Amino acid sequence: MAKISFYSVDDHSNQAVELFKKQLPEHSIHPWPLINCKPEELDYAICWQPPENFFDGATNLKSVLSMAAGVDHLLQHPGLPAKVPLIRLCDAGMGQKIAEYVHFGVLRAHRNFDLYRTQQDRREWRAQPDIDAGNYHVGVMGFGVIGQVVANHLYSAGYHVSAWKRSPVTESYPFEIFTRDRKAFLDNLDVLVCVLPLTDETRNMIDADLLSALPAGAHFINVGRGSQVVESDLLHALDKNHLRSALLDVCVEEPLPADHKLWMHPNVILTPHVAGPTQLQLSVDQIVQSIQAIESGKAPELLAGAVNNTAGY
Ligand code: GLV
Known about the structure:
The protein has a seven-stranded parallel sheet. The protein is α/β, with parallel strands linked by helices. Helix content is 29%, strand content 17%. It has two domains: 3-92 and 278-302, 3-Layer(aba) Sandwich (Rossmann fold), CATH 3.40.50; 94-270, Rossmann fold (3-Layer(aba) Sandwich), CATH 3.40.50.720. α1 crosses α10 and α3 (94-110) packs across α5. The chain has helices at residues 13-23, 72-75, 94-110, 113-121, 145-156, 182-186, 208-212, 231-239, 261-264, 280-295, and strands spanning 3-8, 28-31, 44-48, 63-66, 86-87, 137-141, 160-164, 176-178, 191-194, 218-222, 243-248, 268-270. Glyoxylic acid (GLV) is lined by residues 68-70, 94, 276.
């Protein structure tokens, strides 16, 4: 029998614990803080944004399973035991949700809803130029599991899509994939969508330099992580109208402090990290499968969702 701790900042914790108990009846699930279980007895930890002392004493973990697609909350955790294999969620229903969110942002930009809203304030009845979706160019930065769902969704909706990925792709796609050449990717974009994981390489990647490589009047959508963006550079690009709008689901500091300028900016739409809410049953199913695979002898490193700690995702 394996012992498994569980912690999530989200308010679905009790429900998640019940599902894990039901689907892993041969193992024991221990909501954190632990009662009747010593940390050194734990075999697995399942978590999303665990507190600083979550891993204290957990010296015998076979694996840490992220209740999220991103693992920055684990790789930056000061107490994460060294060398324990990490496993993250692979889509688990989030891709479709994030694609819907991004689709809204792209439609809002493409069909000029931002301009019509300001025209409405002026009682101005005036049509904006009509552009076919096929001539509207959306660039998806980050082409992992979620980025691919987003790019395919937009492509199916008729948009001119291209994507940017850190490492070369081997499969073929019906749209162009850029790797290292950021400038060629950013050229001519109407909308830049960030779906990147947060790593040492992507932290502060969206800065004045990158934003200035976008055509004037482009829009920005961030469903990655706030810390990929230099927020003062983003505000500057918006203030001088180089960027027409930003739709942000993530910020450097969450919740965004009440006095932050992003709250007040007329060309910013903010949402509280809800683009891809955890799909509880699908997430539990995936984590249960991973634990069962490890218990039956499979190496955690070979599972879907195994994290490459050096790459950071
Ligand atoms: C949410 O942001 C996630 O990483 O799943």
